[in-house]
Amino acid sequence: MYDWEEKPELNITPLVDVMLVLLAILMVISPNIVYEELIRLPKGSAQKEVTQKEKIEISLSSDKKITLNGKPYPYETFNDDFVLFSSSLPKDSPVRISADGRLSYNDVMYVLTAVKRAGFQEISLPTTN
Fold first, then answer.
1. Sign of CA pseudo-dihedral 103, 104, 109, 111
2. How confident is the model at residue 11 (pLDDT cuts 50, 70, 90)?
3. CATH at 112
4. Does residue 85 contact residue 79 with C-beta atoms inside 8 Å?
5. Which residues of 111-123 are buried (b: 16+ CB within 10 A; e: fewer)?
6. What average pLDDT does the segment 98-109 reach?
7. For residue 91, is it within any domain?
């Protein structure tokens, strides 16, 4: 009959031996393992050339003198002058209109309307504190 009071002993020595052998094998082999992931990179288009848009700077002084990229233009004929100036420019070029704070709203809107009629959409009106 079986003695229920006797406790069995676990012999873990073979288990430890096997684990140490596996660890030694892994330590020897792991520096030689090279992991390579095959990926496909997208192909770039060599046909499209990146160009920087020409910025248009318009400033309006308190005495209604307009300068367009540093060149002065008369206030009265600015509408026609700007259409002629911008005919060779792409319509997505950014336009920056700076005006003196002492000018009336109508004077600034005159310049803004001329730019809008020429077909430009990217217009900014910077302010200073």
1. negative
2. confident
3. 3.30.420.270
4. no
5. bbebbeebebeee
6. 89
7. yes
